[in-house]
Prior knowledge:
Elements: H1 3-25, H2 28-44, H3 54-72, H4 81-84, H5 98-108, H6 114-123, H7 128-135, H8 139-160
Helix pairs in contact: 1-2, 1-3, 1-6, 2-3, 3-7, 5-8, 6-8, 7-8
Amino acid sequence: xxxxxFHQWVQAHQDRVWSLARYLLKDASEAEDAAQExxxxxxxxxxxxxxxxxxxxxxxxxxxxxxxxxxxxxxxxELTDEQHSDxxxxxxxxxxxxxxxxxxxxxxxxxxxxxSLVVLRDLQQHSYQEVAHATELSLxxxxxxxxxxxxxxxxxxxxxxx
Length: 162
């Protein structure tokens, strides 16, 4: 495989990889580092990966890398609203509404694997099968956990409605 194909893979998946890392890590610079590490692993394993499975593969590697980073972190205080809305990278051009900020806070408050599932399926629009592959869960687990995660989000957002 030549570097042109790898470059195409990076172009096709960079926004989703960064977005997943940003939601999981809640820190833009750390998300950039995690995304870069994921693409380094993609380069290292490029000859072993089925080209049809690159998307789920890179999302699984990104998620696992982020979870490893979270486990290594020292306990820290919650992000302030200012830190939470500090966006750098691919999504910096969009201005967020108040409802959007509430949703982001609610998603950030979900525990794993719920947060990853919501980001992969509902925000990034991956198929259930791709989500199952990326999270290494069965298809039925993905559906059950997504149902629970969405229920938690509905309850959380119902509390902020006027």
